């Protein structure tokens, strides 16, 4: 029975097992993937509200908004994050090729995480550059938002890296009890999401 | 069974309570009778629903309850009834529309200020009021937080010609003419505040960094309370002003008595040398250096801010202080204060006292300073400062290093209604409430002992 | 993912049965233990908030009785009472407590889909509570900013606890949101993906619909609180100016400039209004099931009830600024938000009608849970109707920030959900413990709570009409407040103390019954839903014994014509009973 059929019918009119003997999840994905999708939506709400606050503060604040001069380093960082996302995707493809039984030894998963670490270090460097140029956190709201937006984004990446490191550990240990290809796929999804978020944030701070 | 009866009784009881309750809107004093109308309309609609739904509920419970008499009762199987549900939806929507439409209509009036409305400004701060009127040119000068100082508490831009003739009030007292629409411009110096006169029905928050507004047309003369109704910190409940609605002629006269901004900025500074001469009389009790003399019931004066001394001298000479028969020391002071009965003379004395060397008075009150610190820093420091240094911005005098026996006596006076209750005492009434932070003598001594450590 | 055969599904759920006390009751991954942990913490912290409210009432009713209730403490009590009750008690108890207990049982699963995350959730929740309570012991005490934490007042001197107190509050909220998100992902995924065979969405009990929708609301709304908490913490600790404009304190200009206090309010209420429904929707769901079970009648208009829950949930994101009509925001917003607010009254009213119509032609069993449920209908009607005053922008103008608001939201968000909590606690107590509570004591508890709270809040509305402002340490001397208002305040305080003491009856009852109550059996109420059909009572770890249940029918087959008993459990295959409609005297 489709979702639409389910929610439109009169439930008291039927008795029995409409979908047969097997339980049927509402969405045809794994629990972990659904949870990730829900989390991605929640995180999107978080970032959207930050962006809305950004605009409201810029348009309706005290007129003290001074655009930030973005260091070119940010482009390098962006490249690293794009590469990380690509590496994650390659890891997914290669783990799929290797199949279920054969434990994935794709190095791309490792590369993706390391590139992400590089991105985070790069972002810290950008913070240092900005601070040394006098664009400190408190000096005006554009700066404050830059630090908060990038900081919250980094926190999300750090959360992702925590999951990544656990999966990596299992990969190294050749832990057979867990399907690592699932973790790799979820990581890849999450990385793509955070890459899109980064594009949005970068565009936001670069154009305003 | 009991529940059905009780539900009916509660419905009946609520209606009776509503009808006999002496607690209801204050008599309206503005043209916002429309607001009262929408409230009453809503009462009729919601009252009908309240009665109907609950009586039906009570009847259902009564009629369909299980009981020993009817063991074979069986519920009816009825999953839904589309017609009934649709009908109820439409009925409810109509009821809601009947309340919403007039409400929005009146709101449209509320947000549309008539063109002939004059303006006034209310300026809130923790926990004081100040007011401003546009003056002869009918235009209010620009203002900003950055211009605020002890002599310019309104933050009026001194360079703006439009602001020079603005009439300013640095007291929690304002006036409006009756039967004329006025637009209130609302500003705040620090946190959120709110301008409410219950009799006007209107209210609006005052937000730092922006100017909010509302408009009213007072319809009857009298004196009403202005309350802050947006929580603004510790002194929220004592942030109060009064508004007097006057006949237009009286109002013009009242305006004439107010100073323009330019006048307030060109007031002469108190003269120390002139003050020294006048102080000779004071010295006999308060001491050559204003160090005070407990035997003469004369507190230490050195170290008090000039604006505070000038204000208290004015209160004494105007009978706001020292008139209460229970305040024997104050009664002694009143005739002395009458000797400096001009604002200039008072400022001179105050200037001289401010120039005196400030040696801390000896400590005479004993208490647990540790416990006193908790009470002081939680309740007193917000106005008097963490170091008990006082501040013009909260109209709070210095306490540190002053005569502690005098502090104790004044706290008792505030508590006993001897001080702070008179109409003209614009700031003392705040202490009549805050003194409740020290309900026992031990607590009061603890606080004073702590203040003694701040010298 | 293709269909997972039942056997595999069970395998994936291979339960690691706990063998030590620690793993069984402390680091437990069993949803039922976690539910009770959530509930226990929430009720504990709720009792603290109840105590604070009594201290507040003493100050208002009998101003000179307790020497240490100074203005600072009063405002701190107001703040902590509000925040604890709304977030740490009601949100946690409905979703963390009842959500955890009922979702797997009502959905016919062995546990939540992520039991480890679930365990983490309750311990992070405990951490947030401890951080919150720690603020009572730091210099300056807890924050006294009011539960709305409006900037800039909440983080500037002049408000009690504007240093450590507010910082701990913000950190605690952040930690709470993390805990809630972990729990919420679990609830949503479990309800969507793990329902047992045959349990289609429209066969779910309304409890699950309420909890599900509230969880989704929470997942979307709490980020707004998190964003405002992060930015407020920056303003507080690092001197940024997101919310704090240029302002003067003690004659000095603070190092902030240009921040927008109104932005904070928008963010706060974008969380704060859905929060009302995060509390209300589970209550709606639970009370529906209690009413239906004890009326021996199907819930009337099930489909309408489901859609009303979803509609209310959706609309709740479009009404937030009705808390800000007099905030100084653009006044033209008032037209929009008054309209959306009054629209939300329509689905809400429908739910009330359907509850009452469920009783109509029922076979009502007036026991303790049912009394609480009926009491809820009454208080919710009252609170809902007063909401129509405040939602209608122009009427809000005289009533905003007065005791009318306090009375309204306590009626609708305090008394009503608490009555449902009691209804639900009594209703599911036999399932949780296997024991029956004492009915007489339960009824006395109901009467004291129901009548006592009405005695508190009905008169309080009239203080609001009079114009008495809320959040006042004392009313002071004003011309428009007569002395009789103080007498009324004293009476309200007496009623409040009476209600607070009466809550002891509940605790006596549940603890006494735990030891000495009569065994209840697995399904004492003759209820249809799955949780009453477990092989063991209380259910063991894994809930269902050998095999998961199969669901053959919707959740409300009470008094089906032709059926032998007046209820048919959801997992009973049986014959296809002929179902007939009875209304307007005819059959169709």
TrEMBL record, chain A:
Keyword annotations of the record: Membrane, Transmembrane, Transmembrane helix
Any one GO biological process: aerobic electron transport chain
GO cellular component: plasma membrane
Residues covered by the Heme-copper oxidase subunit III family profile domain: 1-208
Membrane topology term: Multi-pass membrane protein
The keyword Ligase belongs to this UniProt entry's keyword annotation: no
Chief site of localization: membrane
GO MF: cytochrome-c oxidase activity
UniProt keyword annotation of Transmembrane helix present: yes
Any coiled-coil regions, as ranges: none
Compartment(s) where it occurs, according to its Swiss-Prot or TrEMBL record: Cell membrane; Membrane
Domain of life: Bacteria
Bilayer-crossing regions: 34-56, 68-94, 106-125, 145-165, 186-206
Family: Belongs to the cytochrome c oxidase subunit 3 family.
Protein name: Cytochrome-c oxidase
Organismal lineage: Bacteria, Pseudomonadati, Pseudomonadota, Gammaproteobacteria, Pseudomonadales
Encoding gene, per UniProt annotation: coxO
From TrEMBL, chain B:
GO MF, one example: copper ion binding
Membrane topology: Multi-pass membrane protein
Keyword Cytoplasm: no
Reactions that this protein is recorded to catalyse: 4 Fe(II)-[cytochrome c] + O2 + 8 H(+)(in) = 4 Fe(III)-[cytochrome c] + 2 H2O + 4 H(+)(out)
EC number of the protein: 7.1.1.9
Subcellular location: Membrane
Chief location: membrane
UniProt keyword annotation of Heme present: yes
An individual GO BP term: ATP synthesis coupled electron transport
Cytochrome oxidase subunit II copper A binding domain ranges (all copies): 115-257
Gene Ontology cellular-component annotations: membrane
Ranges annotated as spanning the membrane: 41-62, 88-108
Domain Cytochrome c: 270-357, 367-455
Keywords, alphabetical: Copper, Electron transport, Heme, Iron, Membrane, Metal-binding, Translocase, Transmembrane, Transmembrane helix, Transport
Similarity comment text for this entry: Belongs to the cytochrome c oxidase subunit 2 family.
Protein known as: cytochrome-c oxidase
TrEMBL record, chain C:
Domain of life (superkingdom): Bacteria
Record-linked SUPFAM superfamilies: Cytochrome c oxidase subunit I-like
One GO-annotated biological process of the protein: aerobic respiration
Listed GO MF terms: cytochrome-c oxidase activity; heme binding
Residue spans crossing the bilayer: 38-60, 80-103, 115-138, 164-188, 208-234, 267-288, 300-320, 332-350, 371-391, 403-425, 446-468, 488-512
Entry keywords, A to Z: Electron transport, Heme, Iron, Membrane, Metal-binding, Respiratory chain, Transmembrane, Transmembrane helix, Transport
Composition-biased stretches (Basic and acidic residues): 576-588
Subcellular localization, as worded in the UniProt entry: Membrane
GO annotation, cellular component aspect: membrane
Bilayer topology term: Multi-pass membrane protein
Region (Disordered): 565-588
Segments forming domain Cytochrome oxidase subunit I profile: 21-552
InterPro entries on file: Cyt_c_oxase-like_su1_dom, Cyt_c_oxase-like_su1_sf, Cyt_C_Oxase_1, Cyt_c_Oxase_su1_BS
Record-linked Pfam families: COX1
Major subcellular site: membrane
Family: Belongs to the heme-copper respiratory oxidase family.
Designated name of the protein: Cytochrome c oxidase subunit 1
Species in which this protein is naturally found: Pseudohongiella nitratireducens
């Amino acid at each position: 029975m489709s979702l639409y059929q389910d929610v439109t019918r009169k439930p008291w009119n039927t008795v029995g097992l409409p979908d047969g003997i097997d339980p049927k999840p509402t969405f045809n994905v794994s629990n972990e993937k659904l949870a990730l999708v829900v989390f991605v939506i929640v995180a999107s709400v978080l970032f959207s509200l930050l962006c809305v606050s950004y605009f409201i503060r810029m348009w309706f604040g005290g007129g003290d908004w001074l655009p930030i001069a973005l260091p070119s380093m940010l482009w390098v960082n962006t490249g690293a994050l794009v590469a990380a996302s690509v590496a994650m995707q390659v890891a997914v493809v290669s783990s799929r090729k290797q199949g279920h039984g054969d434990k994935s030894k794709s190095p791309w998963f490792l590369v993706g995480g390391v590139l992400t670490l590089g991105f985070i270090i790069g972002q810290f460097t950008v913070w240092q550059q900005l601070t040394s140029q006098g664009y400190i956190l408190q000096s005006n709201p554009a700066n404050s938002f830059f630090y908060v937006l990038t900081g919250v984004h980094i926190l999300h990446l750090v959360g992702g890296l925590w999951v990544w490191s656990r999966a990596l550990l299992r990969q190294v240990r050749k832990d057979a009890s867990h399907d690592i290809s699932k973790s790799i796929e979820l990581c890849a999804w999450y990385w793509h999401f955070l890459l899109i978020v980064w594009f949005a944030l970068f565009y936001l701070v670069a154009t305003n | 069974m009991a529940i059905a009866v009780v539900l009916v009784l509660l419905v009946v009881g609520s209606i009776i309570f509503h009808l006999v309750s002496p607690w209801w809107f204050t008599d309206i004093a503005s043209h916002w009778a429309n607001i009262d109308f929408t409230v009453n309309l809503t009462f009729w609609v919601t009252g009908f629903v309240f009665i109907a739904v609950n009586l039906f509920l009570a009847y259902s419970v009564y009629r369909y309850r299980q009981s020993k008499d009817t063991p074979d009762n069986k519920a009816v199987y009825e999953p839904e009834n589309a017609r009934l549900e649709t009908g109820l939806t439409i009925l409810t929507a109509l009821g809601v529309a009947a309340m919403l439409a007039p409400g929005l209509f009146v709101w449209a009036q509320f947000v549309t200020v008539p063109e002939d409305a004059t303006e006034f400004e209310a300026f809130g701060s923790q926990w004081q009021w100040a007011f401003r009127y546009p003056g002869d040119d009918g235009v209010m000068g620009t203002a900003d937080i950055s211009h605020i100082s002890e002599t310019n508490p309104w933050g009026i831009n001194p360079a703006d010609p439009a602001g020079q003739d603005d009439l300013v009030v640095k007291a929690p007292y304002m006036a409006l003419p009756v039967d004329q629409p006025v637009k209130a411009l609302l500003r705040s110096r620090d946190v959120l505040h709110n301008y409410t006169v219950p009799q006007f029905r209107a209210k609006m928050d005052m937000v730092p960094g922006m100017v909010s507004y509302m408009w009213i047309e007072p319809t009857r003369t009298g004196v009403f309370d202005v309350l802050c109704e947006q929580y603004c910190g510790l002194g929220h409940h004592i942030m109060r002003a009064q508004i007097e609605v006057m006949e237009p002629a009286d109002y013009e006269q009242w305006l004439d008595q107010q100073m323009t901004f330019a006048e307030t900025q060109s007031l002469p500074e108190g003269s120390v040398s002139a003050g020294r001469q006048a102080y000779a009389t004071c010295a006999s009790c308060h001491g050559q250096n204003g160090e005070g003399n407990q035997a003469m019931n004369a507190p230490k004066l050195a170290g008090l801010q000039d604006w505070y001394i000038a204000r208290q001298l004015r209160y004494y000479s105007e009978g706001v202080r020292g008139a209460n028969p229970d305040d024997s020391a104050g009664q002694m002071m009143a005739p002395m204060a009458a000797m400096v009965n001009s604002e200039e003379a008072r400022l001179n004395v105050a200037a001289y006292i401010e120039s005196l060397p400030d040696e801390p008075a000896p400590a005479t009150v004993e208490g647990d300073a540790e416990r006193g610190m908790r009470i002081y820093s939680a309740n007193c420091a917000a106005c008097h400062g963490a170091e008990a240094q006082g501040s013009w911005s909260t109209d709070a005098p210095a306490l540190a290093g002053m005569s502690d026996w005098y502090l104790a006596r004044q706290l008792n006076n505030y508590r006993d209604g001897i001080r702070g209750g008179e109409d003209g005492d614009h700031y003392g009434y705040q202490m009549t409430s805050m003194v409740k932070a020290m309900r026992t003598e031990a607590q009061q001594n603890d606080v004073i002992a702590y203040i003694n450590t701040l010298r | 993912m293709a269909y997972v055969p039942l056997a595999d599904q069970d395998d994936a759920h291979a339960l690691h049965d706990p063998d030590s006390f620690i793993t069984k009751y402390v680091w437990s991954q069993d949803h039922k233990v976690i539910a009770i942990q959530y509930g226990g913490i929430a009720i504990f912290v709720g009792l603290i908030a109840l105590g604070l409210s009594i201290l507040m009432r003493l100050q208002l009713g009998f101003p000179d009785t307790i020497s240490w209730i100074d203005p600072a403490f009063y405002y701190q009590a107001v703040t902590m009472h509000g925040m604890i009750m709304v977030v740490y008690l009601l949100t946690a108890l409905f979703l963390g407590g009842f959500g955890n207990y009922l979702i797997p049982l009502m959905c016919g699963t062995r546990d939540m889909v992520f039991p480890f995350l679930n365990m983490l959730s309750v311990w992070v929740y405990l951490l947030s509570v401890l951080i919150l309570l720690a603020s009572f012991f730091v210099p300056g005490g807890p924050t006294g900013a009011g539960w709305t934490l409006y900037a800039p007042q909440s983080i500037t001197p002049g408000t009690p606890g504007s240093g450590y107190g507010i910082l701990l509050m913000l950190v605690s909220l952040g930690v709470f949101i993390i805990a809630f998100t972990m729990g919420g992902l679990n609830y949503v995924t479990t309800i969507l993906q793990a329902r047992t065979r045959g349990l289609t969405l429209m066969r779910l009990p309304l409890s699950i619909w309420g909890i599900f929708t509230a969880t989704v609301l929470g997942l979307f709304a709490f980020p707004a609180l998190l964003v405002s908490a992060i930015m407020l913490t920056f303003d507080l600790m690092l001197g940024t100016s997101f919310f704090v404009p240029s302002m003067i304190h003690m004659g000095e200009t603070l190092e902030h400039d240009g921040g927008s206090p109104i932005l904070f309010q928008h963010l706060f209420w974008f969380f704060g209004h859905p929060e009302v429904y995060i509390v209300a929707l589970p209550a709606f769901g639970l009370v529906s099931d209690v009413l239906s079970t004890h009326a021996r009648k199907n819930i009337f208009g099930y489909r309408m009830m489901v859609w009303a829950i979803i509609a209310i949930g959706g609309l709740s994101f479009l009404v937030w600024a009705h808390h800000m009509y007099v905030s100084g925001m653009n006044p033209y917003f008032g037209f929009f938000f008054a309209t959306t607010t009054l629209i939300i009254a329509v689905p809400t009213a429908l739910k009330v009608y359907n509850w009452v119509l469920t009783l109509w032609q029922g076979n009502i069993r007036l026991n303790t849970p049912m009394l609480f449920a009926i009491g809820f209908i009454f208080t919710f009607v009252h609170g809902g109707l007063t909401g129509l005053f405040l939602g209608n922008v122009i009427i809000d103008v005289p009533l905003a920030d007065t005791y009318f608001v306090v009375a309204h939201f306590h009626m609708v968000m305090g008394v009503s959900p608490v009555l449902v909590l009691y209804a639900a606690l009594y209703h599911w107590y036999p399932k949780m413990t296997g024991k029956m509570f004492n009915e007489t004591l339960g009824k006395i508890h109901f009467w004291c709570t129901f009548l006592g709270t009405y005695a508190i809040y009905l008169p309080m509305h009239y203080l609001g009409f009079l114009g008495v402002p809320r959040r006042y340490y004392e009313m002071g001397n004003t011309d428009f407040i007569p002395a009789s208002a103080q007498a009324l305040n004293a009476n309200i305080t007496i009623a409040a103390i009476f209600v607070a003491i009466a809550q002891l009856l509940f605790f006596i009852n549940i603890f006494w019954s735990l030891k000495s109550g009569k065994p209840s059996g697995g399904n004492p109420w003759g209820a249809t839903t799955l949780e009453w059909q477990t092989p063991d009572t209380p259910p063991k770890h894994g809930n269902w014994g050998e095999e998961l249940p199969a669901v053959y029918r919707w959740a409300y087959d009470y008094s089906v014509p032709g059926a032998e008993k007046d209820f048919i459990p959801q997992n009973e295959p049986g014959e296809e009973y002929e179902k007939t409609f009875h209304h307007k005297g005819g059959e169709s």
